[in-house]
Amino acid sequence: MTTSEYDIIKTINQGNYLPLYDFYRTYRNEFVNWSIKEFSATQEQAKDAFQEAMLDFYQNVISGKLSVLTCSLKTYLFQIGKHKILNIRKKEQRLTYHNDLQLIDGGETHLFMEEENKAYSQEQIRTAIANLPDDCQKVLRLHYFNEYDMESIARELNYKNADTAKSKKSVCMKRLIIELKKLSLVFVF
Q1: End-of-domain residue from the set 93, 117, 141
Q2: Of 115, 121, 166, 123, which Cα lies nearest the Cα of 143?
Q3: What whole-number distance in Å separates Cα of residue 77 and Cα of residue 17?
Q4: Distance between CA atoms of residues 179 and 183, nearest Å
Q5: What is the structure's pLDDT at 187?
Q6: What is the pLDDT of residues 151-183, one digit of tens each?
Q7: For residue 4, which of 12, 13, 74, 83 sits 20 to 30 Å off, Cα-Cα?
Q8: Where do the H-state alpha helices sit in 1-118?
Q9: Is 0.70 surpassed by the pTM of this model?
Q10: Which residue among 93, 113, 133 closes a domain?
């Protein structure tokens, strides 16, 4: 790890995000091109994977999980991104598409999106979910990505019963819509 890369980690930990934006701009296009070439990813998949990798990088820095590297930050980020692409491709095989927006079949999700009458990008949805509290992230991911039913979610998250899990999911969906509205007003990176 170079001194400047160590400084990036230190600066982000101190609450200054400017180096994070610079790092994003420096490697985004290179990562997208590399992903398309190496993994036959679509440009959208590559962009989503890079966005998720950047979020994981940020979370690892502020949580203290990442303070010293044995490789460059670029290598670290690309390795995370590689796994994100593979996961995105797996998830997309299990999902249906509606207006170029990745949605899980289910009336409730379609209803929320129709009410808002907006087309959000996958990147915005992933960013919005990452901005939710941990309990909401878990509920939504378990239900929509892992296809858990309400009873399984209640057991997994130690809720009283399936009705409690269903209620929590409804609250989390409303929070997700609020986050998506915020993201549509602000350009994330």
Answers
A1: 93
A2: 166
A3: 16
A4: 6
A5: 43
A6: 889 998 999 998 899 989 988 888 888 887 776
A7: 83
A8: 3-13, 18-39, 43-63, 73-93, 107-116
A9: no
A10: 93
